[in-house]
């Protein structure tokens, strides 16, 4: 058996294309414990996500977590599931379609994939190769780089490329946390909210958390989150006292980067903040962590502590400013890459004269 996947059929008169693969975190196929178990196992088995010794983590994961967490997670997913399916899948699909329409006519093919679950990164790479992609841009949809997010997404892409006999040229987007177009898209999202609902007393920016030891070992993620927060505040004309950066989704007993979103929400509630605006700049698309953890659980925490009005601002999703920003990022990364598609009929004739079939 060959060590490589079969190559797609080739014709000498087929145009070469540039490819963009958007990679997001992933989602279970359904909001059920049965669907959650394999999804969580794949996610929590990632060495970049959990850095404990394998033997120890295997005992914890298989002996405890996978017997308890699927049911609890399924209940959370069920609370945000839509008739079209997982919000993350729906939003990421819309982003890929919107980006493709903006890059139409530039010989660029766009696909999306999920690091965990379906469609897989390997499937995304194969779909692009089947469409004649010879130069590939890998774009994890995480604005701020973390080994457990962007790093893991690129791991999966490189693993898929290792299975190809005829590899494409590859470029990667490591992060875009301070890209002017991304910051402008975030600012436009907040300003649109303010135009409709009025400006709140404070803007809370909640980013996904990571264990503190990852920062100590050299992961730049918390620093990039703080830079995004500062740049967004500057774009909105906010003073330091008008906003706060915090971190959500803590898991386990180890210390994570602080301040924790839940603690900040509780304290703002105790301070009787009358109108709190909340946004999650580290998520390109709404998902479980934004729609359930922040929009629902976060609201309950704030109100229970004595807070007033809690206003969640949706993620960028498929908003026009964000799709334009995404297209801008891609064009910058694709600069200088132009497929050589001149004289395709002549190329085919020369190849057939040498014995080629197509």
Automatic annotation (TrEMBL):
GO terms for molecular function: ferrochelatase activity; metal ion binding. Keywords: Cytoplasm, Heme biosynthesis, Iron, Lyase, Metal-binding, Porphyrin biosynthesis. It catalyses: heme b + 2 H(+) = protoporphyrin IX + Fe(2+); Fe-coproporphyrin III + 2 H(+) = coproporphyrin III + Fe(2+). Its EC number is 4.98.1.1. It is found in: Cytoplasm. It comes from the Bacteria. Transmembrane segments: none annotated. One of its GO terms (cellular component) is cytoplasm. SUPFAM superfamilies: Chelatase. Pathway: Porphyrin-containing compound metabolism; protoheme biosynthesis; protoheme from protoporphyrin-IX: step 1/1. It is an enzyme of class 4 (lyase). It holds the Pfam family Ferrochelatase. Fe(2+) binds at residues 208, 289. GO terms for biological process: heme biosynthetic process. Belongs to the ferrochelatase family. Catalyzes the ferrous insertion into protoporphyrin IX. This is Ferrochelatase. It comes from Rivihabitans pingtungensis. The lineage of its organism: Bacteria, Pseudomonadati, Pseudomonadota, Betaproteobacteria, Neisseriales. The gene is hemH.
